Amino acid sequence: MQEKIKDLNIIMIYHGFAMLLLISVSYQRQFDNVPTGDPPKLKPGSKRIYQFRPGENLKLICPIENVKGQSKGGFLWKYRDKTQLVDIESYDETIKVKGPKLIIKNATESEEGEYQCEGINGFGKAVFRLYVFITNGTNKKKDVFSPKFIQKRPELDRIVKKGQDVKFFCGYKSNPPPTLEWYHNDTRLLEKRDKKFLTIESVDYEDSGSYRCEVGNVLGVVKRVWSLKIGRKEHTNLIRNEFKYENSKRSLIVNRFQDARLNCKIRLRNSANDDKKVIIRVKEDDNIFLF
């Protein structure tokens, strides 16, 4: 009887090993069936500005790799119509979309603008933006540059009374034309899109916080952030003046019980009228005792 029990235990052990082996093989097959690959990526140094003359054929190429041959892969072309991106599809013989290529025959001024291509596969998506200029039949190349702010010293910190009107100005120069977005505490203000001025009438406490404008074209993006605080009347006058220390000696080393003379120079700039500057110099003798 004991020998039969021993043989039965051995059989059960072998059976357990066999089951573990089958489970291991099953998991390995499932792992082998999982697709592997890389998400799409942009080719470095890709061209973002194209210039054509009227009547020429536009041929744009999407510089995104790792799309062809991948499962669930493909290219999608879009055109920015004012504030919206519109899908581009092949239409008769005028517009053709062939994978990464977009061909538009007999270009006119209506084809000038921003284009966007997307490369998609089963592992992700990459987006590339470019701009097309139609040069009106001239050979002169247009100057292009990323957005730049035209205000060098804007008033970024605002303290106002409740009920006042506040206006922010996001002035820029850019070519190609950019898009402009406004944000309040990281929430996009859709109704203020592409407007250089942001006006808040009769501000209340919920209007306080940070305001940000982002200006971007196919060459780059710039950002500017303001801080708005709702304060009491006596605090609002602080924003009208800006104090700046003039270059002066910041440290003084003297012997113990030696007299020391301190010279404090402060420049007061009136932001309401930049042409008027007042220099305030405060001189005071004092004794410094070192212990």
TrEMBL record:
<dbReference type="InterPro" id="IPR003598">
    <property type="entry name" value="Ig_sub2"/>
</dbReference>
<dbReference type="InterPro" id="IPR003599">
    <property type="entry name" value="Ig_sub"/>
</dbReference>
<dbReference type="InterPro" id="IPR013783">
    <property type="entry name" value="Ig-like_fold"/>
</dbReference>
<keyword id="KW-1133">Transmembrane helix</keyword>
<feature type="domain" description="Ig-like">
    <location>
        <begin position="147"/>
        <end position="217"/>
    </location>
</feature>
<dbReference type="InterPro" id="IPR036179">
    <property type="entry name" value="Ig-like_dom_sf"/>
</dbReference>
<keyword id="KW-1015">Disulfide bond</keyword>
<feature type="domain" description="Ig-like">
    <location>
        <begin position="40"/>
        <end position="117"/>
    </location>
</feature>
<feature type="transmembrane region" description="Helical">
    <location>
        <begin position="7"/>
        <end position="27"/>
    </location>
</feature>
<dbReference type="GO" id="GO:0005886">
    <property type="term" value="C:plasma membrane"/>
</dbReference>
<keyword id="KW-0732">Signal</keyword>
<keyword id="KW-0812">Transmembrane</keyword>
<protein>
    <submittedName>
        <fullName>DgyrCDS10159</fullName>
    </submittedName>
</protein>
<keyword id="KW-0472">Membrane</keyword>
<dbReference type="GO" id="GO:0007156">
    <property type="term" value="P:homophilic cell adhesion via plasma membrane adhesion molecules"/>
</dbReference>
<dbReference type="InterPro" id="IPR007110">
    <property type="entry name" value="Ig-like_dom"/>
</dbReference>
<dbReference type="InterPro" id="IPR050958">
    <property type="entry name" value="Cell_Adh-Cytoskel_Orgn"/>
</dbReference>
<dbReference type="Pfam" id="PF13927">
    <property type="entry name" value="Ig_3"/>
</dbReference>
